[in-house]
C-alpha cells in the first residue's frame, strides 16, 4: 500500500510536469520538421561450450518533431526512442537458458575424499533443516560450476529457470523476470519500450545567455572516457544485454530526468562556460546485473543472489560447510538473502547533480557533484535469522544472512581533456571521489563496511598513419588506464587466510582500441583489448564492421578471454555465527572469521567482470537494417 | 560602391595618364578595380570559344590552353564535356571591398610563412601578383584564406555527399549534412564588426557540421575552432551519436579522409590547412574555363532534394555520375602550387586554380608523392543573384556543387549544396562545445 501511494505520487509528478509543459506545446503547436527512422537488428552469438547464447531481434524507432521558435523560446523539439526486442535464445536453447535449463545437482562433500559429492538434500542435516519436498532437486546448477570446480570451497544450488517456471530465488522487484520478460526485455512494468521520450527547449535570455532544458526520459552522460563509468553514473546500466561490451548508449537505462544547462558561452577568459543541473526524479533503478539463467550475468552476481535467496526461503544443501568439509543442510530463514530493499519513490529518494564545465583553448574541463544511490547492490548482514542449532531467531554476528540495499553515495569529481599540439595527441582525465559506497567485509559483524573510493581514468587518443596498410586514412589508437583505490580498505591475515574486503585495495584496468577504415569507411576492423591488472585477466574483442549500403550493416566478431579466472577469498564458513556450535576451537571468538578460502562467494570481487567471464568466449554476428 | 566603380571606371579610361601621375590614392583605386572588377571593361575571349559551345572529345584539343590538365584528360577520354556559359562578373559585397581598400598598404607578410601583420578585414593583398615576388604565392594563399568566401556567416543546409564507384556509377553511400560557418574576425557586414567579442582564444573562424543521415552516423557533430594565429592547429570536437559524448580530436592528421569520403579534411573549400603547412609558388595568371554558373538556369536534380521552397540541387552526370551538370565560364585565374612542408604528406603538391575575382578555388589538381595525378577537385560556383532569393545581393560566390575524383581508385565523392547566407542560421552560440551536447541525442 505504501509503495502504491508513493508510485501514485510519482505518477502525479510526471502528470504535473506534463501539464506544466502543455502551454508550451500549445504555443508552439505549429510543426516545423518531423523525422522518423529506425532499424531492425538481429544479433546472434555462439558461446564456446554452450552453443547459442543470443538470438536477439531488435526493432527500434526514433522520432523527432521540431517546432518553430517563438518569443524567447527556440530549439524546441520532442524526441522519442522506442525499442522492442525478442531474444530467441530462451526458445532455441531452452536447455541452457529457458524453461528446461538446469537439472538435479550434487554438492561437494570433501570429507569423503576430494571431489566427492552428495545429492542435494542429503547433506548433514542440522537440527533445523529443510525438506526437499518444498525445495526439489531440479532446475538447478551448482553456483559457479560453469567457471570453476567447487575445490573444497562453499557452493549451493541455484535455480536457473525463468521465475514463472521456477520462482525459487526470485527476489521481489529485483531480478525476478518471467519467461516473457526475458524474451521481450523492454515489455515490463517500467515501460522500457519507451526508451527515451523528452522535450527540448532553449530559453534565450536578454544577456545573451541560454537556458537549455531537456525534460523527460533520457540518458545523461557525464565524463570523457570510454567503457568505464567514473562520472557517467547518472543512468544505471543493463549489463544483461552483453556484459560490459555493448556501447553504453544501448545499455544505459534511461530515467525520467530534468536536465537544465545555463549556457554562458564565451567569456573574457573561457571559450565556453556552462552550468548544468540534473534532477533524476525517476523511481530508483539499479544496474541490471543479469538474472541467473540469462546468458550474461556479470560477475555471476545474479546467480549468487538467486542461490542465496533460495537458501533463505527454502533452505538447502551447502557444500563443504560443517568443519569446512561436510555438505550441510540448512533450514529456511537461517542463511541467505532475505529481500532486496528497493527504494520507493519519494522526493528524498530522488537524485541531484551539478556540473560546471568549460573550455579554455586547448583545455576542456568539468567539475561534477552528484548525490545519488549506488546502482550496485550492497549486502548488509545483521538481519534476524534462525539459529540452525537452537531455533532461536536473532541477529547473529557475521552470519551470512543479508538484505540487499542500495546506499546513498556522494560523488565529487571532475574531468579534463587537453590537446597537445606538439605531439598531436589528446589526453583525457576523469576522476571521482565517492563516499557512502559499501563493500563486503568479512571482518565486520554485519559483513560489510563503508569506504571512500577514488576512481580515475587517464586516456590517450592519437591518429596514426600507417601507409603500408592504408595511405588515405589514419588508424585510431586509443588507450586508457582505469584505477580504483578503496581508501578505507581493510584486510587481515587470519589463521587460514586473508579476510576483510575482497576487492583489491588498488587495482587498474588498461584498455587499448585500435580501429582502421577501408573502402571509404565502409569496412572497419577494430581490436579492443582490456586487461585487469590484479585479476590477471584479459579480454580481447576483435570485430569487423561492413557497411554494405546506407541501410544494411553487417558486423562479425570474436570475444575471448585469457588469464586467470576464478579466485579464492575468505568465504565466512569460519565466521562462527552460532557459537559455540560453529566454533572451530574453544578460543574461537563469536563472529570472527578464521579466513577459510573458497571460490564462492567473494572470490568474484577479485576476479572482476573479465575474470568471471573467462568461460564466455563467443563468436558474435549482427545484421542491422536501417530505415 | 557605385562611386568607387564610377571613379575607377574613369581612372581605367585614363589609365595611361594615371600611370604617369601614380598618386597613392589613384594607385589604390586601380588596384581595387583590377582585383575586384576584372571584367569591368571587357570580357575575356578565346579563339573558337562561344557561349553555348559544348567542348567534348571531338573538339577539346582546340581548347587545351584554357582547360586544366586533369579536366582536359577527362574530356579527352569522353568521361564528360563542358558547356560554355557567358562570363559574368561576380562582385563581392561592397563592405568587403571597402575593407580591402582600407587595409591596402597596411598588411604585410611576417618573417615566417604563416605570419601576417596588419590585417583587419578584407582582401589582404589585392595587388596583382608578380613573378618577381618570391612570396607571391603565399600572398595569394592569404587572399584565399581571408577571402569573402561565405561572407561573415552562412549555412549549407542541407548538404548531400555521395560516395560513388566511378566504374559502375553505384552510389555506395549518401551522407546528408548541415554545415555552418562563422567568422569571428574580419567581419564586414553582419554585426558585430570587425570581430565577435569576447573572443578569448583569438579565433578567426569556426565551422560546425551536423550529420543528418544515414542512421549509423546521424547526429555526428563536428566543431572546428580555427585560431587567427596560422601557426596554431585547430581545436576540434566530435560528438558521436552512438556515444553521446563530445570528444576532443587530435587535428594534426588533416590528410585523413573525412568520414570515408575522397576528401581529406585539408581539401575542404579548396584548401583547409594552415598557410604554414605549405610552400606556396605563384605560377602564372591565366584565362581558363572555370565552373561558374547561374544555379537557376541549370537543369537540376529532381530526386535528391526538394523542399517547400521548391529548391533543387545541382545534378550530376558523366562517367560514374561524377561530374556536375553545370556551365563553365572563361575567367581570370591565378595558378598556384602548394607543396607540403612535411615530407611524409601523402601529396607531393596541389595545383590550385584560384578565381582572381572571388579568390575561391574552383579547381584543384593533386599529385601523389611520385608526382602522379591522384585527385581532382571541382567546386562549382553560382552567382548569388541567381540562386535562393535570400542570397540575392549577398555578394557571396556560392559553392553549389563539388566533385572530388580519385583518378587512381576510380572513385568520386560528389557534393550538392543548399547554401544560405543567413545569419539567423548560424548564431555564435552554435559554435560552442556545449551546443554539441545540447543538440546531441
UniProtKB/TrEMBL annotation, chain A:
Pfam families: DUF1302
Entry keywords, A to Z: Signal
Signal peptide: 1-31
Superkingdom assignment: Bacteria
Top-level taxonomy: Bacteria, Pseudomonadati, Pseudomonadota, Gammaproteobacteria, Alteromonadales
Record protein name field: DUF1302 domain-containing protein
InterPro entries, per database record: DUF1302
From TrEMBL, chain B:
Signal sequence bounds: 1-27
InterPro entries in alphabetical order: DUF1329 (IPR010752)
Key words, A-Z: Signal
Pfam family, one: DUF1329
This protein's name: Outer membrane lipoprotein-sorting protein
Amino acid at each position: 500500500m505504501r509503495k502504491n501511494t508513493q508510485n501514485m505520487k510519482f505518477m502525479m509528478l510526471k502528470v504535473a510536469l506534463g501539464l506544466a509543459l502543455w502551454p508550451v506545446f500549445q504555443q508552439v503547436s505549429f510543426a516545423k520538421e518531423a523525422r522518423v527512422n529506425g532499424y531492425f537488428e538481429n544479433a546472434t552469438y555462439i558461446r564456446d561450450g554452450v552453443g547459442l547464447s543470443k538470438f536477439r531481434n531488435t526493432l527500434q524507432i526514433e522520432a523527432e518533431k521540431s517546432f518553430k521558435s517563438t518569443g524567447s523560446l527556440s530549439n524546441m523539439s520532442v524526441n522519442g526512442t522506442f525499442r522492442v526486442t525478442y531474444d530467441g535464445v530462451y526458445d532455441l536453447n531452452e536447455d541452457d537458458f529457458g524453461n528446461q535449463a538446469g537439472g538435479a545437482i550434487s554438492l561437494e562433500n570433501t570429507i569423503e575424499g576430494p571431489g566427492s559429492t552428495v545429492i542435494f538434500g542429503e547433506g548433514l542435516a542440522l537440527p533445523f533443516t529443510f525438506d526437499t519436498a518444498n525445495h526439489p532437486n531440479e532446475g538447478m546448477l551448482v553456483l559457479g560450476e560453469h567457471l570453476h570446480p567447487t575445490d573444497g570451497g562453499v557452493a549451493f544450488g541455484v535455480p536457473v529457470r525463468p521465475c514463472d517456471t521456477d520462482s525459487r530465488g526470485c527476489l521481489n522487484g529485483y531480478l525476478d523476470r518471467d519467461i516473457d520478460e526475458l524474451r521481450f526485455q523492454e515489455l515490463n512494468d517500467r515501460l522500457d519500450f519507451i526508451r527515451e521520450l523528452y522535450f527540448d527547449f532553449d530559453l534565450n535570455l536578454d544577456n545573451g545567455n541560454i537556458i537549455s532544458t531537456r525534460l523527460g526520459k533520457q540518458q545523461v552522460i557525464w565524463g570523457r572516457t570510454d567503457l568505464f563509468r567514473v562520472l557517467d553514473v547518472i543512468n544505471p546500466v543493463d549489463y544483461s544485454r552483453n556484459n560490459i561490451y555493448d556501447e553504453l548508449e544501448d545499455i544505459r537505462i534511461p530515467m525520467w530526468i530534468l536536465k537544465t544547462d545555463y549556457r554562458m558561452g564565451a567569456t573574457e577568459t573561457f571559450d565556453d562556460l556552462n552550468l548544468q543541473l540534473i534532477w533524476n526524479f525517476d523511481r530508483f533503478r539499479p544496474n541490471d546485473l543479469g538474472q541467473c539463467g540469462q546468458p550474461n550475468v556479470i560477475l555471476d552476481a545474479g546467480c549468487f543472489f538467486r542461490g542465496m535467496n533460495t537458501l533463505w526461503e527454502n533452505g538447502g544443501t551447502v557444500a563443504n560447510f560443517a568443519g569446512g568439509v561436510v555438505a550441510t543442510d540448512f533450514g529456511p530463514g537461517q542463511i541467505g538473502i532475505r529481500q532486496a530493499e528497493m527504494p520507493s519513490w519519494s522526493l528524498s529518494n530522488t537524485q541531484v547533480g551539478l556540473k560546471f564545465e568549460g573550455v579554455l583553448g586547448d583545455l576542456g574541463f568539468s567539475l561534477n557533484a552528484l548525490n545519488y544511490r549506488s546502482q550496485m547492490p550492497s549486502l548488509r548482514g545483521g538481519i534476524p535469522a534462525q539459529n540452525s542449532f537452537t531455533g532461536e531467531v536473532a541477529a547473529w554476528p557475521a552470519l551470512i544472512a543479508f538484505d540487499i540495499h542500495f546506499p546513498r553515495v556522494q560523488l565529487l569529481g571532475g574531468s579534463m581533456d587537453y590537446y597537445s599540439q606538439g605531439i598531436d595527441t589528446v589526453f583525457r582525465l576523469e576522476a571521482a571521489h565517492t563516499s557512502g559506497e559499501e563493500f563486503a567485509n568479512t571482518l565486520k559483524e554485519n559483513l560489510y563496511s563503508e569506504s571512500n573510493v577514488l576512481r580515475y581514468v587517464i586516456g590517450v587518443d592519437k591518429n596514426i598513419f600507417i601507409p603500408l596498410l592504408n595511405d588515405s586514412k589514419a588508424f585510431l589508437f586509443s588507450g586508457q588506464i582505469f584505477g580504483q583505490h578503496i581508501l578505507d580498505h581493510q584486510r587481515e591475515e587470519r589463521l587460514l587466510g586473508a579476510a576483510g574486503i575482497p576487492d583489491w585495495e588498488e587495482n587498474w584496468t588498461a584498455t587499448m582500441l585500435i580501429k582502421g577504415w577501408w573502402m571509404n569507411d565502409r569496412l572497419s576492423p577494430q581490436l579492443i583489448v582490456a586487461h585487469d591488472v590484479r585479476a590477471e585477466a584479459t579480454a580481447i574483442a576483435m570485430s569487423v564492421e561492413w557497411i554494405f549500403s546506407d541501410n544494411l550493416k553487417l558486423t562479425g566478431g570474436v570475444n575471448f578471454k585469457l588469464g586467470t579466472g576464478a579466485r579464492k577469498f575468505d568465504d565466512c564458513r569460519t565466521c562462527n555465527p552460532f557459537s559455540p556450535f560453529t566454533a572451530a576451537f574453544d578460543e574461537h571468538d563469536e563472529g570472527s572469521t578464521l579466513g577459510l578460502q573458497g571460490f564462492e562467494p567473494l572470490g568474484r570481487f577479485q576476479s572482476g567482470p573479465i575474470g568471471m567471464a573467462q568461460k564466455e568466449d563467443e563468436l558474435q554476428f549482427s545484421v542491422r537494417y536501417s530505415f | 560602391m557605385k562611386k568607387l566603380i564610377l571613379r575607377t571606371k574613369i581612372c581605367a579610361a585614363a589609365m595611361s595618364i594615371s600611370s604617369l601621375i601614380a598618386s597613392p590614392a589613384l594607385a589604390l583605386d586601380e588596384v581595387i578595380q583590377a582585383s575586384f572588377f576584372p571584367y569591368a571593361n571587357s570580357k575575356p575571349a578565346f579563339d573558337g570559344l562561344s557561349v553555348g559551345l559544348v567542348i567534348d572529345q571531338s573538339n577539346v584539343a582546340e581548347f587545351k590552353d584554357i582547360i586544366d590538365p586533369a579536366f582536359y584528360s577527362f574530356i579527352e577520354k569522353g568521361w564528360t564535356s563542358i558547356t560554355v556559359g557567358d562570363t559574368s562578373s561576380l562582385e563581392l559585397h561592397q563592405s568587403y571591398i571597402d575593407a580591402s581598400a582600407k587595409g591596402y598598404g597596411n598588411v604585410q607578410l611576417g618573417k615566417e610563412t604563416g605570419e601576417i601583420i596588419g590585417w583587419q578585414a578584407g582582401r589582404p593583398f589585392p595587388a596583382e601578383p608578380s613573378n618577381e615576388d618570391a612570396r607571391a604565392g603565399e600572398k595569394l594563399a592569404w587572399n584565399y584564406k581571408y577571402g569573402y568566401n561565405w561572407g561573415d556567416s552562412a549555412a549549407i543546409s542541407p548538404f548531400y555527399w555521395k560516395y560513388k564507384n566511378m566504374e559502375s556509377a553505384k552510389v555506395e553511400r549518401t551522407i546528408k549534412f548541415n554545415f555552418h560557418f562563422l567568422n569571428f574576425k574580419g567581419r564586414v557586414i553582419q554585426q558585430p564588426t570587425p570581430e565577435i567579442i569576447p573572443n578569448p582564444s583569438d579565433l578567426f573562424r569556426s565551422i560546425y557540421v551536423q550529420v543528418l543521415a544515414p542512421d549509423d552516423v546521424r547526429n555526428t557533430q563536428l566543431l572546428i575552432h580555427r585560431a587567427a594565429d596560422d601557426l596554431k592547429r585547430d581545436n576540434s570536437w566530435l560528438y558521436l551519436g552512438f556515444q553521446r559524448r563530445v570528444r576532443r580530436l587530435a587535428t594534426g592528421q588533416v590528410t585523413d579522409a573525412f568520414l570515408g569520403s575522397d576528401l581529406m579534411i585539408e581539401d575542404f573549400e579548396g584548401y583547409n590547412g594552415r598557410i604554414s603547412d605549405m610552400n606556396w609558388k605563384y605560377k602564372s595568371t591565366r584565362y581558363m574555363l572555370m565552373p561558374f554558373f547561374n544555379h537557376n538556369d541549370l537543369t537540376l536534380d529532381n530526386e535528391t532534394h526538394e523542399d517547400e521552397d521548391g529548391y533543387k540541387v545541382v545534378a550530376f552526370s558523366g562517367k560514374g555520375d561524377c561530374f556536375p551538370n553545370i556551365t563553365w565560364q572563361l575567367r581570370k585565374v591565378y595558378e598556384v602550387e602548394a607543396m607540403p612542408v612535411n615530407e611524409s604528406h601523402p601529396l607531393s603538391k596541389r595545383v590550385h586554380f584560384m578565381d582572381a575575382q572571388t579568390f575561391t578555388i574552383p579547381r584543384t589538381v593533386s599529385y601523389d608523392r611520385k608526382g602522379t595525378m591522384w585527385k581532382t577537385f571541382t567546386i562549382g560556383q553560382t552567382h548569388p543573384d541567381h540562386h535562393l532569393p535570400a542570397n540575392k545581393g549577398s555578394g557571396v560566390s556560392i559553392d553549389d556543387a563539388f566533385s572530388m575524383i580519385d583518378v587512381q581508385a576510380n572513385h568520386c565523392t560528389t557534393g550538392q549544396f543548399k547554401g544560405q547566407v543567413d545569419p539567423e542560421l548560424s548564431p555564435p552560440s552554435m559554435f560552442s562545445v556545449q551546443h554539441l551536447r545540447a543538440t546531441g541525442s
